[in-house]
Amino acid sequence: MRNLSRRNVIASTVTAIAVSLAGCSGDDNQPDTNSINIGPFSGEYEIPEDEYATTGIFNSDRQGEIGYNFTVTSGPEVDVYLLTPEDVDRYENGQSFNYLSHTTDSPPDAAIVDSVTVSANTATQMLIDNTEVGDVSPPTNFDDDVATVQLKASYADS
């Protein structure tokens, strides 16, 4: 029997979600009913050193799985969190916060994937951190080390 690492399982899950997105009908304006792109999360973010960026809020009335991948295309490593809006507020106020998912990226161009199951009616946001709060920190070289991050996310009912 083959042992799968957590990263392999996550990569397979995100790949499956991406494949289901490819199965959309011919009308590009109508997403597949089983998996949707999370527009408020997906995009390119430029985060100056000692700052962070948050995405829009996503919420579904059903339990499902959020899969995401991100790549730092330039700049230092970053922490990426999937949080509730309440925990984003705690982060912003310098308080202890909880997260649904947390990953870090090692440049250059290392694509990182993760997924997490969320309960019905759980509002979520992504937070991309280029500060000293998370596991990785910007370099201490007296330059403004801007991180450029490509983020893509999708959601599927479970």
Describe this structure in words.
The model is unreliable at 1-34 (pLDDT under 50). The relative contact order is 0.29. The protein has helices at 6-22, 85-92, and strands at 35-37, 43-47, 51-54, 64-74, 79-83, 101-104, 112-118, 125-130, 147-157. With 158 residues, the protein is of the alpha+beta class. It is globular, with a radius of gyration of 16 Å. Strands 1, 2, 4, 7 and 9 form a 5-stranded antiparallel β-sheet that branches. Strands 3-8-5-6 form a 4-stranded antiparallel β-sheet. The two termini are 27 Å apart. It is built from 2 helices and 9 strands; from the N terminus they run αβββββαββββ.
Task: Annotate the secondary structure layout.
Blueprint: H1 6-22, E1 35-37, E2 43-47, E3 51-54, E4 64-74, E5 79-83, H2 85-92, E6 101-104, E7 112-118, E8 125-130, E9 147-157
Antiparallel strand pairs: 1-9, 2-9, 3-8, 4-7, 4-9, 5-6, 5-8
Summarize the structure.
The protein is of the alpha+beta class.
Structural class: alpha+beta
Largest sheet: 5 strands, antiparallel
Number of β-strand runs: 9
Mean of residue pLDDT values: 77
Ends apart, CA distance between termini: 27 Å
* Share of β-strand residues: 35-45%
Radius of gyration: 16 Å
Number of DSSP helical runs: 2
Uncertain runs are 1-34
The succession of helices and strands, N to C, reads: HEEEEEHEEEE
Helix content: 10-25%
What does the overall shape look like?
globular
